[in-house]
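FAQ

Q: What does a record look like?
A: Structure on top, sequence underneath. For example:
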């Protein structure tokens, strides 16, 4: 186990990661992540106005470098759909791709600084209901966004998560158009793929072959079989990675940042924007992945910023895009049964190998069979049982959960989570205000005595609730304000208490203060790890 701010048990625990028990789960999961990541890397690069190779390169670095350095066991890093608009505007605004690469490199440096100063602690303050809502929203988005790909209408880029699309349609209108442009070859492939994903793992003797790998093989065979018929797939309905003809051509795809633009103010603004947005998306993603981790491990968030920063620096130096921990790929990783970071690292190797050795075979994979894998991932994230579970937690959890879902689906990840956070904080504050004290009615002879026992922590947020309670106490009563359990009482609350005692005689109220100090100093939490050394 790891703490949020601590490190992992080791940089790379070979005994743990390379054990047969873990490898038999991690390697099949890595194939699934590779298949999911491949079209997403290409689609995001295309939407960002960057070379297709840049998307693949970012996925490779996200797997090999960030995957190795990360303290997260299940998150997968790569180019993120949430950064496409920023990247597209930055490439156009900075005037050249090599100048943009400098901004990516500097964004990585900023992320490393954020990790060093422990800015990752912000990840501890995302309400659980909001994270659950984000996961469910991603599941719903996957189902809606992958439906057009599953039926053969592929006008939008693979990996888009926004409600309003670049082709001037939105998620709903795109689905309606897809119904009118169905390719029955793609429908058959996606239907057979879903059936294989559902039923193949149930046959224990056959389950040794991963269902997603079988889906891809079946998709390739069917895609070839449909050639020359009315159900033939179009070029845009297949994966399309660059075909490298020689070693020199491969190394010619790499690009270097333009360090001469280091004094360009716009470069620094872009770098800061990329660093902040990428860090927030990463922290949200790792928090969400920890939620669905069957083993319930906890990611050290500061180490994650260091890993992401290193990955972005290398990506900028070699010609790639900015990266984050990506919830879609990470969710697919968890649902595929991964146990350790070996899955994320291996998916990076598979991306590299596919680019160098079998690009022609990879380009035979229909997008409709990959859409089936993502549809199943979406279904598991947005399952009905999750909604029932959140409902049983009460409205204070269910409402932020639903608001987050609606906001993420109709805007984008960060804006939606921001709206969900605002609603979640409202309920948090309301609960905090209502738990500032506990009352007890005691007897003093024939007279009733009201004892108000103040909570352990009485903050400024409790001021209004306490003031209203004291103002509404009945006349000619005896009140005891008991601070025995209080470790801290805010100065504003102390002022209200003393003012009430001073003026209570006008209402005939007798006030007694028990164990309430004139002043409380803020208590600092001790670092237990240091105490144990």
């Amino acid at each position: 186990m790891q703490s949020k701010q601590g490190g992992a048990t080791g940089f790379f625990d070979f005994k743990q990661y390379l054990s047969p028990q873990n490898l038999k789960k991690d390697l099949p999961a890595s194939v699934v992540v590779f298949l999911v990541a491949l079209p997403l890397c290409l689609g995001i690069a295309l939407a960002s106005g960057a070379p297709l190779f840049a998307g693949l390169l970012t996925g490779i670095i996200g797997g090999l470098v960030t995957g190795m350095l990360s303290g997260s066991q299940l998150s997968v890093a790569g180019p993120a759909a949430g950064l496409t608009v920023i990247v597209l505007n930055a490439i156009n605004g900075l005037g050249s791709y090599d100048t943009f690469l400098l901004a990516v490199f500097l964004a990585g440096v900023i992320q490393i600084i954020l990790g060093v100063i422990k800015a990752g602690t912000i990840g501890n303050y995302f309400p659980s209901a909001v994270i659950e809502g984000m996961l469910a929203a991603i599941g719903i988005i996957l189902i809606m966004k992958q439906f057009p790909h599953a039926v053969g209408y592929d006008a939008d880029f693979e990996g888009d998560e926004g409600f309003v699309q670049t082709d001037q349609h939105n998620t709903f209108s795109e689905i309606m158009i897809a119904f009118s442009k169905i390719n029955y070859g793609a429908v058959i492939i996606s239907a057979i793929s879903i059936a294989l994903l559902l039923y193949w793992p149930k046959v224990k003797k056959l389950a040794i072959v991963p269902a997603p790998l079988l889906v891809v093989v079946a998709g390739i065979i069917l895609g070839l079989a449909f050639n020359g018929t009315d159900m033939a797939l179009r070029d845009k309905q297949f994966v399309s990675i660059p075909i490298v003809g020689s070693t020199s051509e491969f190394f010619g795809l790499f690009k270097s940042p333009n360090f001469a633009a280091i004094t360009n103010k716009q470069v620094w603004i872009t770098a800061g924007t990329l660093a902040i947005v990428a860090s927030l998306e990463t922290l949200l993603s790792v928090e969400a992945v920890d939620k669905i981790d069957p083993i319930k491990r906890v990611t050290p968030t500061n180490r994650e910023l260091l890993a992401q920063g290193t990955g972005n620096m290398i990506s900028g130096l070699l010609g790639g895009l900015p990266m984050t921990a990506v919830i879609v790929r990470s969710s697919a990783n968890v649902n595929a049964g991964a146990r350790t970071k070996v899955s994320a690292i291996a998916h990076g190797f598979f991306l590299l190998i596919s680019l160098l050795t079998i690009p022609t075979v990879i380009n035979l994979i229909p997008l409709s069979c990959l859409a089936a894998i993502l549809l199943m991932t979406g279904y598991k994230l947005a399952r009905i049982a999750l909604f029932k579970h959140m409902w049983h937690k009460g409205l204070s959890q269910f409402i932020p959960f639903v608001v987050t879902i609606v906001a993420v689906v109709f805007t984008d990840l960060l804006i939606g989570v921001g709206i969900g956070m605002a609603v979640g904080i409202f309920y948090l504050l309301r609960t905090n205000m209502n738990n500032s004290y506990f009352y007890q009615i005691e007897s003093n002879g024939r007279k009733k005595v009201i004892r108000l026992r103040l909570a352990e922590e009485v903050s400024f947020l409790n001021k209004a609730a306490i003031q209203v309670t004291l103002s509404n106490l009945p006349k000619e009563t005896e009140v005891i304000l008991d601070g025995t359990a209080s470790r801290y009482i805010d100065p504003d609350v102390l002022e209200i208490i003393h003012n009430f005692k001073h003026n209570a005689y006008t209402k005939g109220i007798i006030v007694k203060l028990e164990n309430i100090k004139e002043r409380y100093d803020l208590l600092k939490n001790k670092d237990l790890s240091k105490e144990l050394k």
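Q: Is there anything notable about this one?
A: The beta strands are 77-79, 323-325, 437-444, 447-454, 457-458, 478-482, 488-489, 510-514.
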